[in-house]
Design a protein that fits this description.
The chain is an alpha/beta fold. It folds into two domains: 282 residues, Rossmann fold (3-Layer(aba) Sandwich), CATH 3.40.50; 88 residues. The protein has a nine-stranded mixed β-sheet with strand order 1-2-3-5-4-6-7-8-9, with helices on both faces. The longest helix has 18 residues. This is Lipase family protein. Keywords: Signal.
Amino acid sequence: MNPLLKNSLRATLVAALTTGAVLTAGYAPAAAEAPGSLISAQAEPAGWHGLDRGSSIEYWMTDSAGVTRPASGAMFLPEGQAPATGWPIVAYDHGSSGSAPGCGGQADPENAPLPMHRALEDRLIGRFVEQGFAVVTPDYLGLGRFDTGPHPYLEVRSEATATIDLVRAARAAEPGLSRTWSAAGTSQGGHAALSAAHVQAEYAPELDFRGTVAIDAASDVEKILPFMSPDLPGLPGSTSFVVSILAGLRATRPELDIDSYLTPRGQEIVATAGTQCLDEIVAATKGITSADLLVRSLAPLRAPLAAYMMLPTSGYDAPILLAMNVTDTIVPSPLHAALVAQLALNGVDQQVVPGTGPHGSLSAEQLGAIDAFLARVNAAPPQR
């Protein structure tokens, strides 16, 4: 058995038999495994993720096929007692971290790859906590304590349900949380936050959603991938991200026979990527070209890729703030511009705050705009 799964199952059993392992006294995991139900919530020592009041959470979520799966994440609380109406929630979705258990870095930060990247995100989480928000942050399906197969990288539906079901589970664990919540995220996390924003009204109507902050959100990649073929001199964008997308699609849509698009070397790279964190995937794909990876064009995957990962550009019922770096080389500025144009065409309530830093970075102006946005959308009294 995978060691992470073994440890998690042991922790779940302990949580079911004792009250000390969970935040809510007397709580036992729900037998029905309803989406958003709590498995366990463990208070962590001061300094965990650089914050004082953090807890790791295990919970049930639904995957894109509607199957209930276990997942993990983290929760952070402000100092002091909750206000009478509860702490409003920010659900923060992290950036790309890989495809294997333990890569998410939220429930188990000591095992996470890319420590410098995680430290930047932890500081942003800390900023939200200092402003009086409770913050929850999911590992995403397959990236935490449970080995549920390769993480479906950039899959809109499971990103959304991982986020929303953690909000539900955190409220079951901590009675001081409000019904009021907002979504935020960076890179893949921006994609996840927008995905959650789009489905929250039908998926979790019992909650009170206020708005979305998306920082250099991944978008429109599904429009580029179908043009890939062995004849291209190189891959559009980063090879590691393309391989991660193919690994996720291979795991969730076996009927597409992704291996039939790949060379023997490509099959090995994609299959192995499903067991690796991002730093390992980057190392394994260094110098890999389209010809090394593919035996035929990805054009037949146009519709499946769109269904799997395309961000909706209409149908949002709460405002959106997009912090976008025009000098971004991971999600190039034409893709950022395409997202803004599509949202504008469909009359979506959006605010765009440009920057000139590297991917995922935030200028003082962008940070100030995010602070003001969250204050504004949460100005109405929070609800319990």
